[in-house]
């Protein structure tokens, strides 16, 4: 068991839990994309840790590119506006694109990205989301083909997920103490 960071209220998924989830997702993706040479689109910065693990759990040929978008900035709440910070370098026309995300929360980031990438004429666009937050109320209809696991409607950190750029390096997934972000 990892030592708990003092700003973390509770660990939801340990390193061991994460390994098992990523391994299962890698097998599903390897099976579905065996002869499709997918282009993995990792969404910077949050998805970088998950992507690094996931791509090594996938056994079929693949390529990888990065997009950087941001809607949360330094806040614990989405600004409501998705900003492209870095676009792909790869032409995706005719490619099987797999967007890799750390978390689906309001759905704003993924709905924006899916529409943007579909407009470039790929053969397919699917999503692998490590976490899906169980939120009350509506969010855009996004149906990730691959889901790691679910988290409660609290602010999650670790395994790539930050608050004000901190905590991305925690090796586990945890709930941030509310007093840390409401200060
Ligand atoms: O479903 P949503 O409400 O849109 O939230 C999900 C997005 O929010 C976070 O990214 P953020 O914009 O904070 O940037 P980051 O990846 O650089 O941390 C996270 O990494 C997802 O990309
Ligand atoms: N770190 C972090 N980023 C997010 N982006 C959307 N939801 C979350 C969350 O719960 N934690
Ligand atoms: Mg992100």
UniProtKB/TrEMBL annotation:
Subcellular localization, as worded in the UniProt entry: Cytoplasm
Domain (Phosphoribosyltransferase): residue spans on this chain: 18-163
Required cofactor(s): Mg(2+)
Main location: cytoplasm
Gene Ontology terms, MF aspect: glycosyltransferase activity
Keyword Magnesium: yes
Listed EC numbers: 2.4.2.8
Keywords: Cytoplasm, Glycosyltransferase, Magnesium, Metal-binding, Nucleotide-binding, Purine salvage, Transferase
Pathway this chain belongs to: Purine metabolism; IMP biosynthesis via salvage pathway; IMP from hypoxanthine: step 1/1; Purine metabolism; GMP biosynthesis via salvage pathway; GMP from guanine: step 1/1
Reactions performed catalytically: GMP + diphosphate = guanine + 5-phospho-alpha-D-ribose 1-diphosphate; IMP + diphosphate = hypoxanthine + 5-phospho-alpha-D-ribose 1-diphosphate
Enzyme class at the top of the EC tree: transferase
Family as reported in the entry's similarity comment: Belongs to the purine/pyrimidine phosphoribosyltransferase family.
Protein name: Hypoxanthine phosphoribosyltransferase
Organism whose genome encodes this protein: Thermophilibacter provencensis
């Amino acid at each position: 068991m990892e030592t708990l960071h003092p700003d973390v209220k509770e660990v939801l998924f340990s390193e061991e839990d994460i390994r098992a989830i990523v391994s299962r997702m890698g097998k599903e993706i390897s099976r579905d994309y065996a002869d499709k040479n997918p282009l993995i689109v990792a969404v910077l910065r949050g998805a970088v840790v998950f992507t690094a693990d996931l791509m090594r759990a996938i056994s079929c040929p693949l390529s990888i590119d990065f997009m950087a978008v941001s809607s949360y900035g330094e806040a614990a709440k989405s600004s409501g506006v998705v900003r492209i910070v870095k676009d792909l370098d790869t032409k995706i026309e005719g490619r099987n694109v797999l967007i890799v995300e750390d978390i689906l929360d309001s759905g704003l980031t993924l709905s924006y990205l899916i529409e943007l990438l579909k407009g470039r004429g790929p053969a397919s666009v699917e999503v692998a989301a490590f976490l899906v937050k169980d939120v009350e109320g509506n969010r855009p209809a996004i149906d990730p083909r691959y889901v790691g696991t679910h988290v409660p409607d609290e602010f999650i950190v670790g395994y790539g997920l930050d608050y004000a750029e901190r905590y991305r390096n925690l090796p586990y997934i945890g709930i941030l103490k509310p007093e840390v972000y409401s200060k």
